[in-house]
Amino acid sequence: MSTKKREKFVPGEYYHIYSRTILSTPEFKDYESAKRLMLNFLIANSAKSGGIFQYIRHNRNTSQEKLVEMMKKEEKLVDILCYSIMPDHYHLLLREKKENGIYNFIHKCNTAIAKYINIKKDRLGPLFESRFKSKHIDSNDYLLHLSIYIHLNPLDIISGKDWRNHSLKNWHLQKEKLLRYPWSSLKYFLNDDQRDLIISGTEIITDQFSGKKDYENFMREWTEESFSKIDNLTDE
After folding, report:
1. Is the distance from CB of 185 to CB of 84 less than 8 angstroms?
2. 198, 42 in Cβ contact below 8 A?
3. Last residue of one domain, picked from the residues 111, 136, 161
4. Which tens digits make up the pLDDT trace of 169-182?
5. CB atoms < 10 A from the CB of 134, how many?
6. What's the predicted TM-score (pTM) here?
């Protein structure tokens, strides 16, 4: 087990959270498993979510609207500002709202999805590496560029890693591919009519742009120019 010192999360502060499956097994390449993990992001964000998880286990056809109504009654553990789910890992930009909120939220998410996949695949044991990774977001510049990093991450499997070298070609085509990717919060940031029930607290990002097109231009400029500010965002 890792002996890395456990990070102390502080209410009101922002963090990049990253969790990878053991041996990088692509468990979330499966549509239903990725969908279930995204649903867990919604349900686990409450101190009393255990009862809701139990409810949906016994009422498998529960609508998302019903779940949202149930969650409205509960105080959130964290603000989820951005997220993306990849075949073997996920990224979250979180704000700690309650003491131990991030730990409780991630523990419930990872435990619930591991239980779901274990039952589905008739397997035993943990699903994720023993400890999720985290980085404190200590500047506004870091916050903005991390939101881009999370939203561009699906390009790795959509069209390759040119975006990481700031050499992406045909932005408009790549943007459409990103918007068709179902496991990301990007649509909320780029489309005027898009709701995302998982995320909250996003105004700290969106209020810094004149509109959704301005945020898109910020993303595009990063993929096409030689920036260095985002190089150490993650230990992937």
Report:
1. yes
2. yes
3. 136
4. 899 999 999 999 99
5. 19
6. 0.88
